[in-house]
Design brief:
binds pyridoxal-5'-phosphate; 12 helices; alpha/beta; 18% strand; seven-stranded mixed beta sheet; Aspartate Aminotransferase, domain 1; Aspartate Aminotransferase, domain 2; 37% helix
Length: 396
Amino acid sequence: MITPLMPTYARNPIAFERGEGMYLYDTNGKQYLDFYSGIGVMCMGHSHPTLVKALQDQGAKLWHTANGFTIPEGERLAERLIANCSADTVFFGNSGAEAIECAIKMVRKYHHDKGNAGKYRIITMASAFHGRTLAGIAAAGQEKLTKGFEPLPEGFDVVPFNDIDAVKAAIGPETGGIMVEPVQGEGGIRPIPVETMQALRTICDEHGLLLAVDEIQCGMGRTGKLFAYEWSGIEPDIITAAKGIGGGFPLGACLATEEAASGMIVGTHGSTYGGNPLAMAVGNAVLDEMLKPGFLEHVEEMGSMLHGRLAALQQRHSDLITEVRGQGLMAGIRVPSIPTRDIVLDLIDRGMCPAVAGDMVVRMLPPLILNEDHIDEAMNKLDATLTYFKEKTADS
Ligand SMILES: Cc1ncc(COP(=O)(O)O)c(C=O)c1O
């Protein structure tokens, strides 16, 4: 018999009851160090006082109006976001998938309005993840996402990861844009090298294409910059954000330059809940914290420390960890000889929550507020888990 909740997820029986800072507590009171952040969402940790207050204050005043009215907190959030990136305008939705949908529509509308309606195709990279809408799964092109959902929307050309020659070869008269995650998340925590990001910008300029960066997982401070593309010094035309932008409140955004968004006029796009007063209040509270002097520097410092400690862990377990990947507080260890899920389950048992990523990678996306003690605690647990598997293999 089908479960009341549609069974689209493999759910762990553990249910969390509350969260505080870096820790989650299950219904039995057991404590877990959160290195998952609900898939990179809880950037300020759990029950952050600024966010809780913003939610409670706004909750007591006004939740939702409609986008036919002015939403001052939305204007304020958009202004603050564009002041801190290459975009000039923002569309708010409720999720990453919606932000991606807006980005794809924008690429098509841009060329359409320039008299080039045939330039609708978008080049993406293998092992990418762009959400679960039909367009999102078509954009990523992975069989595990698309199988059974055909026919898929037309217009995506997937090239191998980080292969500039393949990108160039894929460009044709119908190409309108390129969309990449500066650091792939689901695909196995793979940063696109700075030189590749720069080459993509040059290619887009040469061919009149729009460059869209999917920052839904790697953006909002996770790498130590507000957006991960900033490390490469380029300016994208379109940026998608979600997850951390709402600190746990469902919020997504598609940010764009004035030129890229030139076709997005009244009536071209919308979302009933997108950018409602409740979401905007929390979004502004997240940004209050993230833009505080020293916050992003703290993320960068903790990121370097985490990667240093993971490199040391790799030395200690060089037979198991083949690679340490990532940037800032988006990190992964590749352990091909043990099923990733087994490692994650053992860590959960020991009171730490990491996540699975593709390519046999244990993924770590801790809240950005962590300190050295949390990194030490995580390393001790990882060390214990890897030692356990090593001993288990030796015994068998
Ligand atoms: C890079 C990237 N793009 C898009 C999405 C889709 O976001 P959502 O699940 O909020 O629709 C995700 C979610 O994991 C993501 O990591």
